[in-house]
Design goal:
The complex is a heterodimer. By secondary structure, chain A is an all-alpha fold. Chain A is built from eleven helices and no strands. Classes of the chains: A mainly alpha, B mainly alpha.
């Protein structure tokens, strides 16, 4: 007999509750990790790099770009666990026995990633912003828009990392995911500089960087926290990130069907 | 009849031969990833794009100094690839139990350190020459002593490999790798001259500068900067070499000490003839 929507919601919320309980037990570790990252970056970008003669105008945008790597790190951890599970433990087989469509199961994975990302990284960003203060060169912060950009960015990253885990074998993932996927996304993603700076240096490079969703994550966060007109507008970033999320949602759906639905 | 020491030495060489056989089987992937993609990307973004955006046009030396620090990350990533399978083996098939039937646990670990050092060194060796080819006059190598640089890279590989085996013996569990990267590797990397040289840390925070002298990664970046850029701003070549050798020995000794929980206890339980 087909499960009703209410039944599915009950299973979904039970899974979510279980994961939230696990998150609660890991929370101290996770927050400590992100605070270590943010503290080190604040020290580096606030004090050490300016002493080396780096242009002061780059400090704020560069810091915010690198802080986004906290999300990246979190996404990679989830992706690596999923990939390892698919190769060895196959806990996912147990979850597949629930009377819940696989899309719902992955929606739960994604919801958990978004919750985890917010709980862990947002306090770290706020602490880092306070630590660096004037060095960030803030013109006008738009917090509501920041949370919208951040929410969509976490959804996109969740889909990307789940796709990487589902769409590749554990061996390929282990050997190649950083050099061939994740590093190029970071390096071609305006993490270490702003898009307008790259465009003014080499316009062709600027166009290439526009193809990378990471560009819109970093620029969107910069645009909402620092403000001004030196970054890509946050509304454009939101639109493009929604588009990329749809693409990766579709790719993830195909990868899940191929990997788990043997019939 | 061959003596016991000769037999052990032959087993040691056979294990090394086995590891290199596997290494060469995966060589294409490793060479593409670590020998081509990483140098290309780092050279293009960190030395070419980033340095032009961060510094004024006349600051070629600062650009070079900043770029050189990337070698510590590349060494860490490459060595991880050859060392951490042991940790997965501890949790999985425990192939290592078979190996310690042929050789003492300490020699097995020593063999793994030697292999990881040589394999890491082979992968990071072409990094700077390749970057020079790509960057030409944007990478200042006018004062570079290439032989000394290769010595630093070799000792850096040895030190990082020994450090990783020590970490494996202490971690014992793959689920703690993420914490290990964020709580140990990241601070050691960022405060070990990855972006900024030691003299900058000393200038801004003298106490932190003195504390970072206990950071082994600092001597990789300082040694590389000294041998590429030269001058009196960085720690000298003999200091870096001595520190890297001392840290490597310390990590190896500590690995032997902590190893007893993982392997030697097994050995004493009578499982090994």
């Amino acid at each position: 007999m087909q499960n009703t929507f209410i039944d599915r919601m009950k299973i979904f919320s039970a899974l979510l509750q279980r994961d939230l309980k696990i998150l609660k037990s890991e929370l101290f570790d996770l927050v400590t990790n992100s605070l270590i990252q943010v503290g080190l970056n604040a020290l580096l970008f606030g004090y050490l790099l300016p002493a080396m003669g780096i242009k002061p105008s780059i400090i704020g945008p560069m810091y915010l770009g690198i802080v986004m790597l906290v999300l990246y790190e979190l996404g990679f951890a989830i992706s690596a666990n999923t990939s390892m599970d698919l190769a060895y433990n196959r806990f996912i087989d147990y979850q597949a026995t629930f009377s819940l469509p696989k899309r719902w199961l992955f929606a739960e994975y994604l919801s958990m990633f978004v919750i985890k990302a917010f709980v862990i990284s947002v306090p770290a960003i706020l602490v880092g912003t306070k630590l660096l203060g004037n060095r960030l060169g803030i013109i006008q912060t738009n917090w509501p828009l920041f949370f919208i950009v951040y929410f969509i960015a976490t959804i996109f990253l969740g889909l990307l990392f789940l796709y990487l885990a589902m769409g590749s074998s554990f061996e390929w993932f282990n050997d190649n995911v950083w050099p061939r996927c994740l590093s190029p996304i970071v390096n071609f993603g305006c993490v270490f500089f702003t898009w307008k700076m790259a465009y003014s240096l080499y316009p062709f490079l600027g166009y290439i960087l526009l193809l990378n969703p990471m560009t819109y994550i970093c620029e969107g966060v910069r645009s909402t926290i620092i403000g001004g007109n030196q970054f890509i507008d946050a509304r454009i970033c939101i639109a493009v990130l929604i588009g990329w999320s749809i693409v990766f949602g579709f790719l993830l759906n195909k990868a899940v069907t191929k990997r788990l639905d043997l019939m | 009849m061959a003596s016991n020491t000769t037999k052990k030495f032959l087993f040691f060489l056979q294990l090394l031969h086995r590891d290199f056989y596997i290494f060469f089987k995966n060589f294409t992937t490793d060479a593409i990833n670590n020998g081509l993609i990483f140098p290309l990307m780092y050279a293009f973004f960190f030395a070419y794009i980033q340095s032009q955006l961060y510094f004024e046009t006349d600051m070629l030396q600062e650009r070079t100094i900043m770029f050189i620090g990337n070698i510590s990350l590349l060494t860490l990533v490459s060595s991880y690839h050859f060392t951490f399978p042991l940790l997965f083996d501890f949790e999985g098939a425990r192939h290592v139990d078979y190996e310690i039937r042929t050789l003492s646990p300490r020699l097995v670990i020593l063999e793994k350190i030697v292999f990881a050092t040589l394999a890491t060194f082979a992968l990071i060796l072409p990094f700077f020459p390749f970057c020079k080819l790509l960057l030409q006059n944007k990478f200042d190598t006018s004062n570079t002593n290439w032989i000394q640089l290769f010595i630093i890279l070799f000792l850096g590989s040895l030190c990082v490999s020994a450090y990783y085996f020590l970490a494996i013996c202490i971690l014992k569990n793959a689920s703690r790798i993420n914490n290990f990267w964020l709580r140990f590797n990241l601070p050691l990397l960022l405060l070990g001259g990855f972006w900024t040289p030691w003299y900058i840390t000393m200038k801004v925070f003298p106490a932190l500068g003195i504390a970072t002298l206990a950071n082994p990664f600092l001597y990789i970046t300082e040694g590389a900067r000294q041998t590429i850029v030269g001058g009196s701003k960085f720690l000298s070549f003999p200091v870096s070499v001595t520190a890297l050798i001392c840290f490597s020995l310390l990590f190896t000794m500590l690995t032997f000490y902590f190893l007893k929980n993982e392997l030697i206890i097994f050995n004493q339980n009578g499982c090994i003839p």
